[in-house]
Write a structure and sequence with these properties.
Elements (H helix, E strand, L loop, with lengths): L15 E6 L6 H11 L4 E3 L18 H6 L2 E2 L12 H15 L5 E5 L3 H9 L9 H14 L1 H11 L1 H6 L5 H14 L17 E7 L3 H17 L2 H7 L15 H7 L5 H24 L5 E3 L4 H11 L1
Parallel strand pairs: 1-4, 1-5, 2-3, 2-4, 5-6
Helix pairs in contact: 3-4, 5-6, 5-8, 6-8, 9-12, 11-12
């Protein structure tokens, strides 16, 4: 099969995947809905934090009203107790996309999880299934010794990947260590990075705004989450706090408050700080992709014109 060039109008003109990316709190949900309504289509979520039905307020998941405006797939479709990974997401998302393309000329893929976006657009490398004993061992060491343990372990097992990985992301480092320990090979050796063929055109749209405005949005949204009951949502999840799905911004800080380690106001400030850092990491990831055309979120007509020019 020929590799699809997203800019080649001759390839599969009736199948167009609009890929909408950008940092957290930038307005992807609203714009994705507007795009879905304009093109009379559906939305595939690529926000790994919004997969879990128990996590609503702290992940800014689409509300019921928003889901009525446009059909969302992969939003609230899992439980925090489910084992899920990017490989399964790739397979499920591609299968669903092929089904939707039987009726729709456009589909919107929207989210801020770069690895999940890449999985749909170009595929990911095959990784071994996890070994629960090894995973539990790594998690136990991490809980006891903290993130520095992961950094030291990873640099020993795979110094090449250590140079590339986000060293503030424990989940990425834990997975790499797990693969190294399980297989006796470096994590890098599994990362072939050979793009898979896709039989649809990919049109990538990024939205962003000046940093000061983005950070103000993050602060306002955090305050709104608190006002909407984030603390109570996290309280209800307290028995499950050790699950991987809950080791995320907005939840781990409130857990610290509930443990009595910090005051609520400090937890709120920590959420804002950690969310800003997360947004920076997202932008670093997406800025590497030169196929993304960037816009301000409110420039809807320009975005539509660009999509039409590529479809």
């Amino acid at each position: 099969m020929m590799i699809i060039n997203p800019s080649d109008k001759k390839n599969n003109p009736k199948k167009n995947l609009i890929v909408l990316v950008g940092p957290t709190a930038i307005g992807k949900t609203r714009l994705a809905i507007d795009l879905a309504k304009h093109f009379n289509t559906h939305i595939l979520s690529a926000d790994s934090r919004q997969f879990y039905k128990e996590l609503n307020i702290g992940t800014a998941a689409p509300t019921e009203a928003e889901r009525r405006m446009a059909k969302h797939y992969f939003a609230g479709n899992l439980s925090i107790n489910d084992n899920y990974n990017v490989s399964r997401y790739e397979n499920e998302a591609i299968k669903l996309a092929q089904e939707l393309f039987d009726e729709k000329g456009f589909i919107v893929l929207a989210g801020g999880s770069g690895m999940y976006i890449d999985a749909v657009c170009q595929g990911i490398d095959e990784m071994p299934d996890f070994d629960k004993k090894i995973r539990d061992e790594i998690e136990s060491e991490y809980q006891e010794k903290g993130i520095e343990f992961l950094r030291e372990k990873l640099v020993q097992l795979d110094p090449e990947y250590f140079e590339k990985v986000d060293k503030d992301n424990p989940n990425r480092m834990k997975r790499a260590i797990e693969v190294c320990m399980q297989t006796g090979r470096t994590f890098t050796s599994f990362r072939i990075r050979k793009p898979r063929d896709r039989n649809f055109r990919i049109i990538k749209v990024g939205i962003n705004r000046p940093r000061e405005e983005l950070f103000r949005n993050i602060s306002l949204r955090t305050d709104k989450m608190i006002g909407n009951g984030l603390v109570d949502e996290v309280k209800g999840l307290f028995p499950f706090r050790d699950l991987n799905a809950l080791n995320t911004v907005g939840y781990k800080e409130i857990f610290q408050f509930l443990d009595g380690e910090i005051k609520l106001q400090q937890a709120i400030e920590n959420i804002k700080t950690n969310t800003r850092r997360y947004a920076k990491r997202q932008l670093t990831w997406f800025k590497r992709d030169k196929e993304i055309r960037w816009f301000l979120p409110e420039h809807f007509d320009e975005i539509i014109a660009y999509i039409n020019s590529k479809s």
